[in-house]
Amino acid sequence: MVTTPVQLTDLIVTVAQEHVDVLNRLTAAVELSAQLDELGDHLIGHFVDEARRAGASWTDIGESIGVTKQAAQKRFVPKESPDLKPSFDRYTDRARRVVVLARHHARFSERIGTEHLLLGLMDESGGLGAKTIAKLEASEGTTRLATLNALDNTSRQRPEQQPFSAHCKKALELSVREALRLGHTFVGTEHILLGLLGEQDGTAAKAMAATGITKAAAEAHITTEFRKAVSAQRRAPREA
């Protein structure tokens, strides 16, 4: 039996310290509960992915979590769909623009893939995601070139409800997981980059691998940049 690292007393104290009014405390408790549910889902998802990489079957995974093989697949295998879960509520403006730009790059395609998301990420050049790619790629512009070379340039009739590919949906799911793992309350372009790198079977990850960009190096650079930003904010003189 795993000892729960989060104690109920700690959560009660946290809510009580941040809010005086009892109804505000109740509202905060509900919001915190939803966050914990999301963390739990991503915790399980992380170890499901780990088990799959280790060669575990969906039957084995289903038995481990107490459901059928079909139920496990339905819950954890992203399907091609125009709908996105989770929603973009916590995405930054830059991150949302990346998705809009991805749709633009996929305007002649039947679906939106990780390659389109990566092109949108690089188009949003002011974001930390694009800056990290520029910092780590073998030479300037090689990642964009590798991604463009990987595109299917056959023009097709775009469906009215253009779906995101399964790989793209998984990358966006991993973006949220990366944000949660790093303790961030938002999803930015840097998290989208980490999500794309985490979905190793996607075209985007393969294009970046060809130009020398690894997930470990990207995370190290992103973490360093966050530390610099926090340090600069602390050093900034306060207004009188």
Automatic annotation (TrEMBL):
<dbReference type="InterPro" id="IPR044217">
    <property type="entry name" value="CLPT1/2"/>
</dbReference>
<dbReference type="InterPro" id="IPR036628">
    <property type="entry name" value="Clp_N_dom_sf"/>
</dbReference>
<keyword id="KW-0677">Repeat</keyword>
<protein>
    <recommendedName>
        <fullName>Clp R domain-containing protein</fullName>
    </recommendedName>
</protein>
<feature type="domain" description="Clp R">
    <location>
        <begin position="88"/>
        <end position="229"/>
    </location>
</feature>
<dbReference type="Pfam" id="PF02861">
    <property type="entry name" value="Clp_N"/>
</dbReference>
<dbReference type="InterPro" id="IPR004176">
    <property type="entry name" value="Clp_R_N"/>
</dbReference>
